Every structure is written in structure tokens, then in C-alpha cells.
Amino acid sequence: MSTVNSYLTVAGLGVDVVYKDIKNLHISVYPPVGRVRVAAPQRTTEDAIRLAVVQRLSWIKCQREQLQNADRQTERRMVSGETHYVWGQRYLLDVSRSSGAYGVETKGNTLWLITPPETDATGRFGALDRWYRRELKAAVPALLEKWQPILGVEADRFVVRRMKTKWGTCVTASRTIWLNPELAKKAPRCLEYIVVHELMHLLERGHGEKFVALMDRFLPDWRARRDELNEAPLGYQEWGEDERA
Ligand SMILES: [Zn+2]
């Protein structure tokens, strides 16, 4: 297994750089969000890597767009037997129960989605999406309580907002952290990584050496958590349209 040796921001893109015993530099774009990774021969200079990324920027952007479009085309039918993820666990959807009120329950490996009779796929999808948002909103306060004193910073608020290419973002001017509701499908340690990452931006804006050093100090396994987050779950990854804040 190779290790990530550095992290650069090039033309607004976050780029992982892995140094290896190889002859030529490779650039790869990974699903689902289009993470960019450069494998570079040992002793390649940072400037050479930046140049290589800039030269292939239109190709990278094209790859990212394709990934995002491909994901959007994966329509959910919201029928019993479909696979859905909650906090990193795989569940099989069951829509066989109906009730006047919407409800979501997990039991064993079943994700029960209870809706009024004759709710269509869009209605079911919306009900499940609202539930994911509530799950995420409920999980975040404990993480802020844990990490704000450790890092010595405080966010003014956090909002759950769907973003096409980001798991989270930190608006430093308003000290607001935005979190993608898709995080409720990933393991809780992934959410913790994003919360720590975004809080860290209140200490350090960019992703430069100082930022990486802070992450290494406070959350030494952040790279493994990030890699886990960016691995597409087997089968399917759903990305809806950008929507309300
Ligand atoms: Zn960041």
C-alpha cells in the first residue's frame, strides 16, 4: 500500500500526491466526488506536479463532470430490496408498511420506510432524504462539543446542505460549517473527520503544510478516514441535485 505524501491545492483543486518508484507521473480522478490523485516519481518537485495538474486541468474537469453525471443518472426506484447505507452499514429497503405518518426505522439489516399509501418513488426518496438530514443534524452537536475545546475554536453554526463535489465546507467569514447529508450514509468516523477538517479551517484557511501538520497532530489517521469516505460503496452512489441551504 502506498502512503499519501502530500496534499496540494492547485487551481482550487485539492490534490493528493503519492511519491513512488515509477518513471512517469500519473493523474487519476476517483469517484464519487472526483478526488484528484497524482502518483509521481520520487524527487519530482512540487512545481513540476503543479504544472502537470494545470496542463491537464480540462481533462480533470471533464472526468469530474462525467463522474457526477453518471452518479446522477443512477435513479433510485425506492422499492423493497434496494440497498441503502446508513452510518456505513448496508441495509435492504422495505417499503411494504404504510401509515398516515412518515417514518424510518432500522432493524437488523432492514431499513423500513413507512409512508402514506400510494406515495411514489419521489415521495419516498424525499422522506428518506429528510430522515438522513435529521440523522446528520442529531450527530453533529456531540462532535462539536468534543472537538471545539480540543482545537480551541468554535463554529457559530452548522448547516446541512447538499453539495455536488464536497462533503463539507467552512465559510470562515460567518464561521459556518456546511455538511453534505450524504455523510449520514458513511461511517461515523468519516463524519468526525469532516467536522475536524472544517473546524480546522477556522485555524488555517488553506490546505497547505500548516493545515496538514495540524491535521496530523490532532487526527493522525485523517488520511485513512478520508480515503474511506471517498471510496464508492459497492453498487451504487446517489447524488441528487444541488438544493436549498
Ligand atoms: Zn478543507
Q: What would you say this structure looks like, in words?
A:
The chain has 245 residues and is of the alpha/beta class. The protein has two domains: 4-70, no CATH class; 83-231, Metalloproteases ("zincins"), catalytic domain (Zincin-like, 2-Layer Sandwich). 37% of the residues lie in helices and 23% in strands. It is built from six helices and eleven strands. The strands form three sheets. Strands 1-2-4-3 form a four-stranded mixed β-sheet. α3 crosses α4 and α4 (188-200) packs across α6. The structure holds zinc ion (ZN).
Overview features:
245 residues, alpha/beta, Zincin-like, 2 domains, four-stranded mixed β-sheet, 6 helices, 37% helix, disordered C terminus, binds zinc ion
Number of domains: 2
Return the CATH topology of the largest domain: Zincin-like
CATH class of the largest domain: Alpha Beta
- How do the strands line up in the largest sheet? 1-2-4-3
Query: CATH superfamily of the largest domain, please?
Result: Metalloproteases ("zincins"), catalytic domain
Helical stretch tally? 6
Task: Provide the succession of SSEs.
Answer: EEEEHHEEEEHEEEHHH
Helix/strand/pairing class, anyone? alpha/beta
> What global shape is seen?
globular
**Helicity level, as a percent range?**
25-40%
Which helices and strands occur, and which strands form pairs?
Blueprint: E1 6-10, E2 13-20, E3 26-30, E4 35-41, H1 46-55, H2 57-73, E5 83-86, E6 89-94, E7 103-107, E8 110-114, H3 121-151, E9 157-160, E10 168-171, E11 176-179, H4 188-200, H5 209-218, H6 222-230
Parallel strand pairs: 2-4, 6-8, 9-11
Antiparallel strand pairs: 1-2, 3-4, 5-6, 7-8, 10-11
Helix pairs in contact: 3-4, 4-6
The structure holds zinc ion.
